[in-house]
Amino acid sequence: MILVTSSCDKGGKIASRGPEGDPVFQAKMRAAQEGAPKAQYELAWAYHCGLGTDQNFADAAVWYRKAAEQRHTKSAYYLGLLYKEGVGVAADEREGDKWLRKAAGDGDIEAMAVVGGYLIGRLDGESGRNRTAQVCIRESERGDPAAQMTLGYLFAYGIGVPIDYSLAYKWFGIAARSVEAPDRLNATVCQISFKKHLFSDELEEFEKVIGEWKPIKAKAD
Q1: Distance between CA atoms of 95 and 122, rounded to whole angstroms?
Q2: CB neighbours (10 Å) of residue 214?
Q3: Domain boundaries along the sequence of the chain
Q4: Over 50: is that where the pLDDT of 221 sits?
Q5: Distance from C-alpha of 214 to C-alpha of 221, rounded to nearest angstrom
Q6: Is the Cβ–Cβ distance between 64 and 41 less than 8 Å?
Q7: Is the model's pLDDT at 67 over the cut of 80?
Q8: Which homologous superfamily does the CATH classification assign to the domain defined by 3-106?
Q9: DSSP string for residues in 163-213
Q10: How high is the pLDDT of residue 100?
């Protein structure tokens, strides 16, 4: 997966590139060293993306962990991805699962989607993955934003469904209309990453579908 290295398109609080003497970077460093979880996350993000300093995933992991240990949800999400993908830290599936589950448990929609995608991908047999993907499609059509994000990933990576970048674009776009910030930004960035795979007439069609989409009401038992 390329979630770690592509996520910097989302931007960050530290906007300038430069040496570690950058005053904005240094201010974040001081606040992070004092133990503020938000500042620790922003410092990790600066190292993650090379904002105001050199890109350094190992240092990013250090500060994500400090913030995650204080229940900073998005830090737990990115720390989990670093462990899953072996970027900045030794690859460790169990440790990655632990932090992603913490983030998902604290309500991070993107973490819920990634956890769902990993779990479906681990199911034994194609039929099991296909059945679970169908449940995800059903819940997405009913309006569940976590299922919609997960479904976007499933279509992007061909887990339980054929790879279809146009449908990944569609479901990330629908999810972006359903969730609150910062998950709306995350869903939008995921959607934009698949825009290049669509022709202009397809984009126009799918933008219309996304704009007019409404959830299907579940049938009464």
Answers
A1: 16
A2: 8
A3: 3-106, 116-212
A4: no
A5: 21
A6: yes
A7: yes
A8: Tetratricopeptide repeat domain (1.25.40.10)
A9: --HHHHHHHHHHHHHHS-TTHHHHHHHHHHHTGGGS-HHHHHHHHHHHHH-
A10: 87
